[in-house]
Amino acid sequence: MTGIADRIGGRVKQLIAEIINDGRLAEEGMQQIKKAENTPPAKPFGNLDKLT
């Protein structure tokens, strides 16, 4: 997944965990968000800067 998708997925997990009162799912969501923050930004155009 991309960083943005991980961030959104983690937040959704946290919201669902809050609704159903599931601490394990909340922790999973938090870890997914942290993973997304450590992911380098995506390069949609690849290595375009090296082509010039």
UniProtKB/TrEMBL annotation:
Region (Disordered): 31-52
Domain of life the protein comes from: Bacteria
Name of the protein: CsbD family protein
Species of provenance: Bradyrhizobium brasilense
